[in-house]
Design goal:
By secondary structure, the chain is mostly helical. The chain has one domain. It has two helices and no strands. The chain is rod-shaped.
Length: 82
């Protein structure tokens, strides 16, 4: 069934929030990872190790947001448009 764009606006908004959120978390996770590795390189291993673990957690949440929310919503919107 083909829906109008006005009826798809909430789904498109949700899709954009998931996409931007996943991208933002990916960038933040990469920045935290870089900070952690530079901190370890400069000799503060405890803080660096903690930052690396936190960066991995943020990257994992970005992955989950992308795979569990973004891709299924994208498939649903594309199915509604065809």
């Amino acid at each position: 069934m083909r829906l109008s764009i006005v009826e798809l606006l909430p789904d498109l908004l949700e899709l954009s929030v998931f996409g931007v959120g996943s991208a933002g978390l990916s960038v933040a996770g990469a920045y935290i990872e870089r900070f952690g590795l530079l901190t370890v390189e400069h000799g503060n291993t405890e803080l660096g190790a903690w930052a690396v673990v936190m960066g991995l957690a943020v990257l994992y949440f970005a992955y989950l947001l992308g795979t569990d929310k973004f891709w299924p919503k994208l498939r649903a919107v594309r199915a509604d448009l065809t």
